[in-house]
Amino acid sequence: TRVLKSDDALLSHARPGTLVIEMSTTSPSTKIALAAIAGVRGVDFIECPVGKTMEHAIAGTLALMAGGDASLIDKARPVLAAMGNELHLCGAVGAGSAIKLINNALVACINAASIEALVAGRKANLDIALMMSVFKTTMAWNNALAVGLPKKALRRDFKPGFMTRLAHKDVALALAMARDLDAPMTQGEAAYAILDSALQQGFANDDTPGSMLRVCEAKGRVELSL
């Protein structure tokens, strides 16, 4: 935000007609405020936060969540196509940030619930492979169980990935947005508490699912691995 809106920042020096594409993960209100500043100065503005993983970023196959005037998004397509292969038109400026925050809060909730289930199962002397084989046949199955946790956290690989401090920031923003909207996000609050504990335990720069796993393992006094 400082790069764009301070007195000596980009928006104050951009020529009228310049197209600014803001891609950070911030609140919808922040994007709307930046778009208003840009409009006063005759600068075109869209937002386009991204989703998926570091591997997708390297491959140029991110999911793109664009908000703003459709004609400006079309103008930006050649640039955006270099970064992602899924462009979602979300609505006006602010809508892209809203879906990004809701998505990241949901990911945190799914990770938290999946990890707690595995910890509880292990405490009940259930084998991880058995739990996975049962979950796979029911509505419990999800991509955290299918892909994310087996790929890294359950192999005790805690290298980021998506750093825990960033997930903590994003879920905090999602909770603030939900409060402003008077929308319930009790599961998000529970996931945020696990992320908060992860920061307190020194996992800020580690991969998020692995940090959440270690917090839950410590509470359950077990260790999970494949």
Q: What does this entry look like structurally?
A:
By secondary structure, the chain is mainly alpha-helical. It is built from eleven helices and five strands; from the N terminus they run ααβαββαβαβαααααα. A three-stranded mixed beta sheet has the order 3-4-5. The chain has a two-stranded parallel sheet with strand order 1-2. α5 links the parallel β4 and β5. α6 (95-123) runs parallel beside α11 (208-220), α9 packs antiparallel against α10 and α10 crosses α11. The radius of gyration is 20 Å and the shape is elongated. The model has no long low-confidence stretch (mean pLDDT 95).
Give a quick rundown of the structure.
The chain is built from eleven helices and five strands.
Number of strands: 5
- Spatially, the strands of the biggest sheet line up as 3-4-5
Radius of gyration: 20 Å
* C-alpha geometry: elongated
| Biggest sheet overview | 3 strands, mixed
| Uncertain residue segments | none
Helix amount, in percent? 55-70%
Mean pLDDT: 95
Class computed from helices, strands and strand pairing: mainly alpha
